[in-house]
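Posting for a labmate who doesn't have an account.
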Amino acid sequence: MKKLVIMILVLASLLNTYTVFAENISLSAPSSILIDFDTGKILYDNNSSMKLYPASTTKMMTAILAVEKGNLQDIVTVDQEVVSLTKGSHIALEPGEQLTLEQLLYAMMLPSANDAALAIAKHIGGSVDNFVRMMNERARELGATDTNFVNPNGLHNDEHISTAHDLALIGRRAMELETIRSIVSTVTYEIPPTNKKAETRYIKITNKLLYSTEKIDVNGVLVNAKYEGASGIKTGYTSEAMNCLVSYAERNDQRLVAAVLKAEGNGSYSDTHKLLNYGFSNFQNKAIANFNEYIDNIPVSQGVVPFVAGILDRDVIYPISGSDAFMVEKKINPVADLRAPVEKGQIIGTVDYVLNGKIIGGGNVIATSDVEIDPMTKLHNRILSKWYLFVFGLLILLRAYALNRKKSRKKSRRRTPSTIRF
């Protein structure tokens, strides 16, 4: 009886531990997501496909196109249309004022200047409308298929929508670009006097994850809004969108992207802390398999040896929890009817790594050595390739045999004495 009680207590403890692991995130925002930067794997999903207003997180896409299509040292001349269309946050650009594309990117991504976003859009796209078309095309290329941009800065429009999932994908692409990574990890920046402004503009990032000692509530504990390892990406706010935040952080070779939409007050920061904490605590990028790792002996027909050793052609890295690490299965797919000759480095199959029925990675299996064709197989093949000669020869032999039989019968008849009749 005592042993039974102990077993029940141990089991309850294990179940309780699992529940804490799985249900440890209590989020206030209606939609959010956490993904692994390196693999794109979704680590936590909270209604991430809900279509909402992205506000100034839109500017991540504007920055992506600016870096992909433009030159940082380009001189951008502000026109009257940019000034006329500007609402909300701005750095007071004037018609005819000239700044570099790099300076405008800092102005757009740090204090979230809407006039800077419009100036970039006109410079890259030729017109705001054409630039918006480019934004939507690039979004689809990145897999952000539930996104529809109407402007380059995120000012409210009922048709200007996105999702936490899509914004995480866009944020991931933004942080793949070194220029954007550098910009969004900068807390303060100075824009020197221009042809229209005699004073230096001093600007500061709006993302509290990078600098703020303001206290926020994370699971009942007051902590600084600043998050260790955070270095981006973009905040957003309108009265309709409420507070939005797409963030990036890294610790111990683990890189994460989180997106939180429609949070109240500092809820975007609290939820982001919770998401990032969950990711760093429960997942780790592990080598499921390594480059040059032995996979299996792959059968080879018609070779001097019956098989060739196969190795993996790449590292397979995946963010995985400690318990799941032992559940990964390996599925080998050899080339069907592999025949000699085989060359070293030749692809002789593929391998998939499967977790809970889902492929989480894989690669090609390549040969570690040459396998020459069996000489007897060569002779056999040569013989088979000349089959018609053997058939022709056989026909000749059969014909010769038939003629010989015929001659033999005639000779036999000549030797046999004729029957004498009376």
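Reply:
Got it, the structure tokens are right above this. Confidence is low (pLDDT under 50) at residues 1-23.
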